[in-house]
Specification:
Blueprint lengths: L4 E11 L9 E7 L19 E4 H11 L3 E5 L9 H10 L3 E6 L13 E6 L23 E6 L2 H13 L8 E5 L6 H11 L9 E2 L3 H6 L6
Parallel strand pairs: 2-4, 4-5, 5-6, 6-7, 7-8, 8-9
Antiparallel strand pairs: 1-2, 1-3
This protein binds iron/sulfur cluster.
The site of iron/sulfur cluster has 10 residues, from loops.
């Protein structure tokens, strides 16, 4: 039993819309609060409010939803320190846990069993100065880096950024067009014509499956 609590916006069951586990039924735990204000944020409703839940309550809800894949998201989940207790409980119970993070907050103490999905902030977010470059040294093949690309400037910036920090030799790298700002085909064309240098993890194009299925509603 734990008396620790977290501020939670929602817990729901849906398909993973992005990354290495796209399409897999997943339980999402969306924690409340974020210190960033990205231009393209589609979860502003998670900035404030939510409800206080005990970690035991969260574990019960997760168990009742039945998925083995759990995505801890936000907001910025690392803005609540007790998220580490929750992720440890989930891993100890043999869930496959991933963490969506802005990359602005230190990830050094994230449980090594958790797959980190680090969202590098592009200039189009207006929050690129918040990128914490020290975080890159904690990335492993079990993690992912994601660039949300809003324009050709973002695309060129992202290519330079990943090469400068050698990120695609650390973990898989995803380039994702910003919905409503960049046509997916345009990004696909740029990527195919770029012929980026060979790397351990070639850059992978992705679109957000959930947006195509359900629009701005995160899931069912
Ligand atoms: S880090 Fe994520 S939740 Fe926070 S403002 Fe940016 S997109 Fe929104």
């Amino acid at each position: 039993m734990s008396k620790e609590t977290l501020r939670v916006t929602e817990i729901f069951y849906s398909l993973q819309g992005e990354g290495a586990t796209v399409g897999i039924p997943t339980t999402f735990i969306r924690l409340t609060g974020c210190p960033l204000r990205c231009e393209y944020c589609d979860t502003k409703y998670a900035f404030y409010g939510g409800k206080t839940l005990g970690i035991d309550d969260i574990m019960q809800q997760v168990e009742s939803l039945g998925a083995r894949y759990i995505n801890v998201t936000g907001g910025e989940p690392l803005s609540q320190k007790r998220v580490h207790l929750l992720m440890k409980r989930l891993c100890d119970d043999n869930y496959q846990v991933s963490l969506e993070t802005s990359g602005a907050i230190d990830v050094s103490n994230v449980d090594s069993r958790v797959s980190k999905v680090l969202d590098v902030k592009t200039p189009g977010s207006s929050e690129d100065e918040k990128n914490n470059h020290d975080n890159y040294s904690y990335l492993t093949y079990n993690d992912q880096v994601k660039y949300v690309i809003c324009s050709e400037h973002d695309y060129n910036w992202s290519k330079d950024h990943l090469l400068e920090h050698d990120l695609n030799n650390r973990c898989p790298v995803l380039f994702s067009p910003c919905v409503g700002q960049l046509e997916p085909q345009q990004l696909a064309d740029w990527l195919l014509s770029a012929k980026l240098p060979a790397a351990k993890f070639p850059v992978r194009f992705q679109i957000q499956l959930h947006k195509y299925l359900w629009g701005d509603t995160p899931g069912k």
